[in-house]
Every structure is written in structure tokens, then in C-alpha cells.
Fold each of these.
Amino acid sequence: MYKLVMAVGALTLMTACSKQPELEQRTESAPTEATSSLAQYKAQAETLLADIRIEKDAAALEAQSADLVTLSRTLLNEFVAKYPQCQTYLDALDKAADIIPTLPLEEIETGYHADGKLPKFDDPVCYHAKDLLVHPATVQAIAMKGFSGAEDYKSAEMEIVEVIAHFDQVERALK
């Protein structure tokens, strides 16, 4: 009888222990909305970069960069939820998101890359989030005007290389 009780107890304990890590693993791997948006943004940015490097046509690159701008707006909202000190700065950017790609590249540079048309901010973390929208919007503007040669593709490539660097900072800030 004693051996039977011990065997049942051992089996119960092993069963309980073996199921616990699965539960913890499922909980840890369940993506939050921010994690899901971050993964999607990174994948889309990397795809856009690869497509720029193979010099896909302007219409395709315009659509891809526009999709990345749209996704960045979702990330900016998630970012403001965690960093409310960035709200005024990022809200101003969000309001301009639809017009940025229609502007001349020089105006995008001075107004949005260099913050000339955006309110001042105190926390440097806000700057990295801004660039998740501005860089793909710049690529969208380049694509809308049309790629006239290798130099335009190189400019677009550098925009996405830079946004991926800013993305790493934003990803760390949101995790």
C-alpha cells in the first residue's frame, strides 16, 4: 500500500511539474500588442530595405513605404501610452503624416528630420520614435517623385538603414 501511495504521489508531482513550464512558456510567448506591432514593423522595414536594394519599381516601393508609415502611427500611439511626455511632439508629427510624403525632400529634411516644424521635446526617447514615421515617409516621397537612378535608390536605402537603427532604440524603450 505504501509503495502505491508513493507511486501515485510521485506521478502527481511529475505531472504537475511537467505542465507548469508549458503554462509559463505560453504566458511569456503570448505577444502583447506592442510586441506584435514591433515585430511587424521590423519585418516590413527589412522587406522594404531588401526591395530597395533590388531596385523594385517606384509604385511598389511607394506602397510599401506608405504601409510602414501607417504601421509607425500605431507604434507612435503605443509609444505615447508608455512615454506621455512625448505626446505633444508625436501628435504634431501624426497630424502631418499624410502630407509629409507630398513635400519636397528639402522641406521634409528641415521640417521633420531636423524638427523645424515640430514642437520642442525634453526627452531624447521621443526623437527615436519620431523617426519611425519620418524615414519611411521620406522613402515614400522619393518613390512618388520617381527613382531617376542609383543615387535615388541609395538615398532610399540609407533612410531605411537609419530607421532600423532608430527602431532598435524604440524597441528597447517599449520592452
Note: Confidence is low (pLDDT under 50) at residues 1-31.
Amino acid sequence: MAGEAILFLYVGAVGAIFLLNIFQWFFSRDWIYGVFTFQTFIWCLYAFLQRVYLSETSLSTAEFLAIHVAVHGLAQIAYLELVDCLFDVTKQQPRLKRWFRGSQLLALGYPVVNMGLLILIGESWPASSANVYLATVYWLLLVSNCGIGIWLSVRHRSTVGGYFLLGSILLMLHEINSLGNYIGPFYPAPTTEAGISLAKQILGGGLILELMSFSIALVLRQRQLAVAQAVEQTRLEAKLVQERLEAELAVRWLEKEKTDAQLRAMQAQVNPHFLFNSLNSLSSLIEEEPQRASQFVDQLSMVYRYLLRANDQQLATLSSELEFIRSYFHLLKTRHGDGLSITIRVNPEAMHQLLPPLTLQLLVENAVKHNVISLKKPLTIEILGDETGYLTVRNNLQRKVTRILSNGVGLTTITAYYQKFDHPAPLLTEEDGYFSVTLPLIASSADWSAIEER
């Protein structure tokens, strides 16, 4: 009764491990779980046959030993495949891989030959000296394979390797026990019922502990793989984020370079345009009003000096822009007389604030270019600023009847400047007979430092 209880407990424990690994294999689709499921199935089937069939059937010792050899051979094939999958023997130890394949063939071949010769020769075959030598070599091979598994487990130096080491040691002891059953004198079998019961308890408990150790090793391996996969996923995501940021920075750099090129091209268009108009005005003054021509040259020199300096500046103070626009307006006044007037009302506290250079010149030039200027229809330009941080340049609308060809240099240049500095674009409005452009001023030196860093 005690032996049946032990066998029943053994069948239940091995069956539970078998079912657990079936579920793990189903959900993970990992080959290593399929191999271990096969191994636990072999032991579960062997235990079930012992419980249901072998205990109720009168088998000879030779037949029982033949089944025992076959079960251990199949289990050994699965064990070697486990070692291969767990420790990556194929890549790490290619020569050992060939040894494993040869051992698996022998683990399958000897039981088949042993069973065939038993059928052909009969009960005398197991006791023959030839079979004793073959069986000894066979079991020594299985013990040696367990030794290799132990060696690889120790080299692995991890929790997974530790649990697999324990399972391999227990499997080696199991194989040594089977070897002892064949060499007889060196391993006397128990003869009393109590001794047989104790041997069954030791072997059954050892096998259960062995399978549990292997199962825990595989669970920990799966956990390590999941952690490694999560780390790799995080690394890839971080790499993708970094690559996206680098791509965005590259795009912004290219946009900045494009904007700079556009600005340089626009300034190259503005300066010659202004210079040619000024030279035409100077030409008419030289003969008619030499004194005014001299004053005009002085103002032109001041204006052009500022224009040249502006090419090397990213921002200018409002006070320097207003000083420049007064000199520039003097040149325009020379050309258009009393038909053109300008009014400047700016809060003195805003004089230190910044804006792109030549902004006011481009807006004033734009107003002069597109509107009628005469004594009957004077053009009035106003530059207004207050404490809100905005500057408004506006003029009364009296558009020329003849369509003026425009390349959009003025407003496009200003908008490009503000885009470059990541500031809101100027606001253009047209209402109540006035055209207005509202510009945001850069308020402080801190904003200027941030722009220089970009």
C-alpha cells in the first residue's frame, strides 16, 4: 500500500509539471518548452504505466529493464536538447554540438537494438556479457552527458544555471543508480520490501525535484528573455526618439540655412534698389541745388553705412532703427517733397528693445512704392509704439492706379526674419483706409542670448 501511495503521488506530481509546461509551451511557442514537455511526458507516461500496467502485468526482469533503458534514452535525448537550447551550444560550442547529436543517436539506437535482440534471442540476451558491456557503455554515456550539462550550468553563473545544475546533478544520480543496477556487484539492490519502498521514495522524490528544478530554470529563463526584450524595446524606442530628434534638428538647421540664404538674397535685392533710386535723386540735385545735394550725400553716406553694417547684424535696437529711418526719410523727402510725411511716436522705455535690422526701412519703402504721393494726396506714414511690446507702422491707403510689379521682398524679408527667431509673425491689417503692420519687439537681452545660442 505504501508503494502504491508513493507511486500515486509520483504520478500526480509529474503529471502536474507536465500540464504546466504544456500551457507554457502553448502561450510562449518556444521550442525549449516543447522539448521539456516531451521529457516530462516520457516520465509521466512511465509512471502511469508503472501504476496501471506494469504493476498488474507479469513482466520479466529483462523486459522491464528494456523498457527502463528506452525511457531513459528518450529522456536523455530531450535533456541534451534542453542543454543545447538553454546554453546555446550550437554557437558557443560547435564541437560539443556534434557530440550531443551522436549521443542522441546512441540514446535512441541502443534501446531499439536491445529490444530487438531481446525479442530475437530471448531472456538470455540481458545476462550475456556482450549486453553487459554495451549497457555499461550506454549508462556511462548518459552519466557523462549529465556531467557536461553540469559543467555548462556552472559556467553560466546565473540563477537559471543554478537551478539547471541542481536538476542535472539529480539526473546524474538517477543515471548512476541505473548503471548500478546493471553492474550488480558494485551496487547491490535492496531485497526487503521496506528497502524497495525506500528506494522508490528516494528515486521518485529525486525525479520530482529534478523536473521541478528544470521547470524553474525555464521559467527564470523566460523571465530573463522578457526583461531583455523589454530593455531592447526601450533601447530601440530611445534610439528612434533620438533619431527623430536628430532628424528634426537637421530639418530645422536646413530651414535656418534656407532662411539665411533667402535673407541674404533679399538684402542683396534691397540695397541696390535703394542705391539706384538715391543716385537718381542726387543726379537731379547736383545741377539745381548743390547745397542740398551736399546734404543729401551726407545723409546717403550715413544711410548706406548703416545698411552695410546691418548685413552683419541679426538684431538692432529700436533707437538705432529710428535714427536710421530719419536719415532714410530725409532722402525720400528730397525725392517726394511735401507729398510725404512721417510721424514717430514711440514710448522712450521701448528704445532698448530689439527688432530685425532694416525692418522699418522695408515697411516705409513698401508704403512709398505702392501708394500715390502728391501734394493733393499726401502720403502719411506713422510709426507708433507703446508699453505693450509691439510697434505699429501704418500709412493711409491711396493705391496707385497702375499696377506695380512686386516681388514681395519687403514683407517677405520681415516675415522670414521673425520665423528665423521663432517669434510671432507680423500682423497685417487693412481697415478704415489704413494699411498697418504690427511688429512684436524682442523684449530683453535674455531673448537675444537665446537667439544667439540657436
Note: Residues 193-288 form the longest helix (96 residues).
Amino acid sequence: MSEPTRRLKTLPTHLALVVTCLILMVPLYWMVVTAVKPLQEALASPPTLWPHHVAFSNFADALRQAPFVRYVANTVLTAGLTAVGNVVIGSLAGYALARGRFRGRGVLLGFVLASVMVPGEATFIPNYVTIRNLGWYDSYLALVAPWLVGAFSVFLYRQAFRSLPESLFEAARLDGCSELRLFRAVAFPLVRATSLTVFVLSFVWTWNAFLWPLLVTSRPELRVLQLGLTAFQTEGGVYVNLLMAATVLSVVPVLVLFATTQRLVISGIGEGALK
């Protein structure tokens, strides 16, 4: 098949993908456009597709309206600790399930996989009761501890470790390498893409968390970014332009993180899929 013929056959598929991408970009476009509109224009009906007056001062006003820097610091702290916890604990658990030899390993793996099918919201009440009984309510521990490891992270690491050749482990054991050193010096460095994937996904999930922080915190100084956006909703109404400006500021770090790591993240998801 010639190159022009092949391109002609794939043209409808490419056009459909382009149209789909444009549709998915509409909410993002509307968010950015509203973020640079004056309040009167942001509330105008019918709405304008492009601002008549561009107000970049909305971003500065949004930062002054609420302690935005504190919200970002809280979110970075909780998301960073959660992501690191998923990498450390998830890798250790995944290695044990992939390379360990102990009774009940298959049953334990089954429980891990079964927990993936349980919606996260279904665990909020028991987790909340546990946090209350431990005296962690309204603290950073309440925001971080329940999410330090997830079944998805464990399973992803387990698949990655299973894809490594057995000869590497046999050679290391013949050299007198302990199991912990085998994990640290041989296995873990070979699954760097998986580690980055787990870190990025855990970071993004925690960055976007809203309902759990709302349940376990009440002090304004412990608010995370998604809760902080409610500061632009008052009894007199919603400052739509400032809300969208703050939302843009909260989205940019995640977009930059994913844009710089997307190839390794995709590679990490596929790591271990083929053995």
C-alpha cells in the first residue's frame, strides 16, 4: 500500500480524534477565558467567547483574596508525602508479592486486587472513625495517613518486579546479597519508570482531593488547594473570574508535571505488561 493511500485511509480517524480533542478542550478554554474577564463580563448573559477587556490583574486579586500560598504549601506537603509513601510502601509490598515465597501469597494478592474494586468514597466513614479514635482529626496526619499506599501502586510494582529476569536475582543471591539489599540495589533501580508513574499519579490524585480534606479538617490553616477555592464563594455570590483565576493557578503545576513526565509515565504503566 502506497503512503498516500495509507494516509487517506487514516484521515477519518485523525479527523475524529482532532474533533474529540477540541471538544475536550472546551472546558479548559472556558476556564482560562473567564479567568481574564472583568466580573461584569464574566457574569454577562449571553456569555462572550472572548473577553472585550483582558484583566490579568485577576490573578493578583485571587492571591490577595485568600491565603493562596498557604493552601499551595499544604497541598504540596500532603501530596508529596502521599506520593513518597506510595513509592516506598508500594514498592516493598509489590516486591514481596512478586518475589517472595510464603504461604497465602495468592490470597493476599486477591485481597489487594479486590480492594481496587471498592470505591474510595466507601472507605471514608471507617477511615474517619479511625482518625477520630486516634486523635488525628484536624491534623496533617489525617490528610496523609490513610492514603500512604494504595492497591493500584502495589499491583503496578508487583507486575514490574515480575517482569525482571530471574537470572539477575539468582546471580545476586550467589554473591551473598541479602533480600533487602537485593531489593534496594538490584530490583528497585530497574523499575524507575514505574516509580515515577506511581509518584506522579499519587501526587495528582492527592492534589485534586476535596471530599476527604473537607471531612477531616476544620481549621482554615489546614485547608488544601481545592478547599481553598471555596473562599471565592460568599453570601453575596461567587466571584467567578477570581475563582477561575485561582483554578488556573492550581491546574498549572499539575499540567507542567504531567507534560514533563508523560512519556515515562506511559512507559511505567506498560512496564511489566509483557513478560
Note: The chain has one domain: 66-270.
